[in-house]
Design brief:
Radius of gyration: 26 Å
Number of helices: 24
Helix content: 40-55%
Structural class: alpha/beta
Shape: globular
Bound molecules: phosphoenolpyruvate, magnesium ion
Number of strands: 16
Distance between the termini: 32 Å
Length: 593
Amino acid sequence: MLKGKQKEILLRGTPISHGIAIGKLAIFYHEQESIPEREIPESEIRQELKRYDKALKGTKKDLQRLKKLLEMDRSHEAAAIIDTHLQLLDDPVLVVEVREKIRQSRKNADYVFHCFLHEYQQRFDEIQDLFFRERGCDLLDISRRVLEHLGGSERASLTSMPPNTIVFSDTIAASDVAEADLQNISAIISHDGSPTTHAAIVAKAKGIPYIANVSSELIEEAIGTEVVVDARSGDIILDPTKKTLTKYRKVQEKITSSFQELEKICSLQAETYDGYKINLMANIEMVNEIERMHQYGGAGVGLFRSEYIYLAKQRFPSEEEQFVIYSQIVNAMRGLPIVIRTFDVGGDKLTVEEKATHKGNPYLGCRAIRFLLQKPDIFRAQIRAILRASERGNVSIMFPMVTDLTELIEAKELIEEVQNELSHSGKIIEKRVRIGCMIEVPSAAMISDHLAKECDFIAIGTNDLVQYLLAVDRSNQEVNKLYTPTHPALIRMIKLIVGQAGEYGVPVSVCGELAGDPRFTPLLIGLGVSELSVSLRNLPLIKKVIRNTSVVRCHQLVEQIEVLSSPGDIQDLLNQEFHALFPEECDRILINS
Ligand code: PEP
Ligand code: MG
C-alpha cells in the first residue's frame, strides 16, 4: 500500500465483539523461534526434569494470577477459560508423557516439549474440526508460556503494546485477550476465528471490539499505520482518508454522547406515550453483564444463554458447578426475573461428540432440546441446578428449538420429576418456576396454540426462525443476503404465533437480534408482542423508541406493512420511519437512508 496516495482499502470480516476503534495497527506474532536441540548427559537428566516441573509450576502460577484478575473484573467466563488451561497443565500427557520423553531421548526439556506439542497440534489441525482446532489453540497458548519459563523463547504479549493499538494476528489466543487492557488494545483483528472460540468469549467479556476472518494479505502492509475498525459491521478501513477518519471520530463521539443521553432514560418505564407497557428485558451470556442490565434499567433477563458455561469450559459442568453459577446469577438479579434457557448446544455451538463424529448439517441435527432429551443425565443435572438456584429468586426455565409438542411435554415431565426428587430430599421448598417454550422452527410456529396450552410463556427466537423459515444458514457468508428478517413470511408468522398464544392468555416475547433492532420495535409492538429481550448494548435505545411511539402508530405501521410483498420494500419502510423519527441514532445502527 502506498502511503500518501490516500486510496483507502476496505476489508470485511466477521464482527465478533462490537464497537468502533481508530488506532495504530500492530502485528502480533505467535511464531516460535526454533528451539535448539541439546544432548543431556545421563547425570543431568534429573536436573532437566526438575527444570521442566518448575516451568509447569511457573506457568500455573501465571495463569492462577490471571484468573484471579479476571474474577476481580467479574469476567467469570474468561476466568473459566483460563481454568480449562490450568486443567490442561495437569493433563498426564503434559506431565507424565513429556517427562518420559525427556528421560528416553536425553534431550533438553524445551526441545522435547516443543516437538511433542508441535506433533500434537498437527494432529489436531488434521482433524479440521472447530473443537479440535480450539483445543490446539489452547495447547499452543499454554506451550508459549511453558517455553518462556524454560527460557527457550520470549513469549509475545499484548501487555507490552503501546496505548491505542489495534492488533492483527493469525490466530489470537484466549489468554492473550485475557491479558489485554482496553487502554492499550483498542481492537483485535484475526485471520482465523469464530464467535464461539475461547478468544471470542473473552473479548466479549472484556468489551474489546473484535473482527475475525480477515485476510492477512493487505493488512500486513498496513502495519504501523492508522486504521479504522468498525466491529458493528465487520469493516476495516486501511489507509483511511482524512474524511473517513473525521467521519468515524464523529460517529464515535455521537455514539458516546447519544449513549450518555440515552442513559438518562434508563430509569424510566419502557412504555409507549399512550401508556402501553412493554416488558423490556436483556439477553445475556456472561454473569458480568447483569450489572449493566441493572444500570440500563432492564426489567430482567429474558434469555440467559446457558450454553456459554459449556463453551467456556469445553465440557458439561457438574450439577454443583452449575448450581454455584446459577446462584451467583440469581443473586445478582436482586429479585428481578431471569429466564435460563437450557443448553442450546449443536448448530454453531457444537458438542464434543458431535464434532468428533460429524454427522451432516449440525443445524438440522441433534441440537438443543433434542440433544438434552437424548442425554437425560446432562439434562437432569442442569434442571436440578437451576431448580436449586431458583429458590433464591425469580427464575424461569425455557427450552430451545422445540419442534414438536411431545418434546415440550417430555421436558416438562423431567422438570416435574426433578422437582419431586428435590422437594422430597428437602433441597427445594417451593415449586415456583415458570416454563417457557422457544419458537425457532416453523413447525413450532404452526402449532403455537398447542405449545401455548402447555407452557407459561412463549419466546420467539428470530435468529433461528429466519434461518429455518427461509432455508438460509445464518453463519454462511455466501447466502447472507438472503437472510432477510423483513421477509413477509416472518411477519405473518409472528402475527400467527401471537394470535394463537393469545387464545390461551400466554404472553409472547421476541428474543432474537431483531428485538434489539430499533427499526423493528414499532412493528413488533403492533403485532402484539408484549416483551422484548434484547442485546444489552441496544437496551437503552429500544427503550427510547418505545417511549417515543404509540400503539396507534404501531398498528398503522403493521397495516402498511401487511400489503407489501417484498422484503426490500418492508425494509425501506422501516428505515424511513426510523430515520424520520430518530435521525440522531442512525449511526449506531448503520442506517444511511
Ligand atoms: C434465536 O435463535 O433467536 C435465539 C435467541 O437463540 P440463539 O441466537 O442463541 O440461537
Ligand atoms: Mg436460537
